Amino acid sequence: MSAPVIGVLALQGDVREHLGALTAAGADARSVRRPAELDAVEGLVIPGGESTTMSKLAVLFGMLEPLRTRVRTGMPVYGTCAGMIMLAEKILDPRSGQETVGGIDMIVRRNAFGRQNESFEAAVEVAGVAGGPVEGVFIRAPWVESVGAGVEVLAEHGGHVVAVRQGAALATSFHPELTGDHRLHRFFTDMVRSAR
Ligand SMILES: NC(=O)CC[C@H](N)C(=O)O
């Protein structure tokens, strides 16, 4: 069977690291910046970066509505950090005009871990990912404040939800693309394969 074609939304953020991790996980990875490129992928990663900027660029590039449509109609999608924020139905204290794609019935708090703790690493046990905890790299990371009934909580750190899944949509507060451990990218690649 052919490798799943998985895009990385390449408007802003750490695109190259995700392309590398997806390739290592067995996907045919491509960057996606335009609607026609989105049409050509089976699944999409929304990377970390800065969610306000990403939101503005999504509007500017005419990508917001195509993204909403693909996610609503079941395309597998994985958001890390700023990408998690993009998948939230609601953000606490959004910057004015900050739009999201939505897809996961959750409320997300931006920069939630606070100034004292802007960046840190922690071992995180993720439900469904075998082989022990993953190294979670948190960089001005959001956490999930609350979830709706259809959302599965996959991981917590310090009493806060940091990984969730709803159907074909996956999100983590942290950045597995920065660690060389490709288990989460394999997990997502398997989600894309089983959506075929
Ligand atoms: N590493 C990240 O993606 C940080 C996310 C950023 N704090 C935001 O609000 O968009």
UniProtKB/TrEMBL annotation:
Pathway it works in: Cofactor biosynthesis; pyridoxal 5'-phosphate biosynthesis
Cellular-component GO terms for this entry: cytosol; glutaminase complex
Reaction catalyzed: L-glutamine + H2O = L-glutamate + NH4(+); aldehydo-D-ribose 5-phosphate + D-glyceraldehyde 3-phosphate + L-glutamine = pyridoxal 5'-phosphate + L-glutamate + phosphate + 3 H2O + H(+)
Residues where L-glutamine binds: 49-51, 110, 139-140
GO BP term (any one): pyridoxal phosphate biosynthetic process
GO MF terms held by the record: glutaminase activity; pyridoxal 5'-phosphate synthase (glutamine hydrolysing) activity
Active-site positions on this chain: 81, 175, 177
Keywords: Glutamine amidotransferase, Hydrolase, Lyase, Pyridoxal phosphate
Record-listed E.C. numbers: 4.3.3.6, 3.5.1.2
Keyword Lyase attributed: yes
Summary of subunit composition and partner proteins: In the presence of PdxS, forms a dodecamer of heterodimers. Only shows activity in the heterodimer.
Family, as annotated: Belongs to the glutaminase PdxT/SNO family.
Biological role: Catalyzes the hydrolysis of glutamine to glutamate and ammonia as part of the biosynthesis of pyridoxal 5'-phosphate. The resulting ammonia molecule is channeled to the active site of PdxS.
UniProt-recorded name of the protein: Pyridoxal 5'-phosphate synthase subunit PdxT
Organism field: Streptomyces paludis
